[in-house]
Amino acid sequence: MRIAIxxxxxxxxxTLAADLDGLKLATDALMHDHDWSGASQAASEWLxxxxxxxxxxxxxxxxxxxKWLKRNPEGKPVDRVVWLSSPHVELSPGQAxxxxxxxxxxxxxLPEHKARGVEIEER
Length: 123
What we know:
Layout: E1 2-7, H1 13-18, E2 23-26, H2 36-46, E3 54-57, H3 61-71, E4 80-84, H4 93-115, E5 119-122
Parallel strand pairs: 1-3, 1-4, 2-3, 4-5
Helix pairs in contact: 2-3, 3-4
């Protein structure tokens, strides 16, 4: 199964990914070599990999999913998206802003994912 785990900072994306089977790809690793847009573009290209079970996680996932959808008028980027909305600790102002941005993009692309048959789990 191909799974994307998305949500704002400190919501447990990495912890959840560690418990799942498959190739694990973390978008945070892309931030060292790319700006914000470049990281989500690179992550969207990871979604083109056909390598069996895959777990993509990170705050750049909603933007990566949006970019994949724009490049691919048909099909689905993953089988399932797990959206984590509740941080486990108090967020800094910057983290809170990032969480709002993630939420905005997620709500924008959610209908298209549903229409394409992607299983959605919101926690």
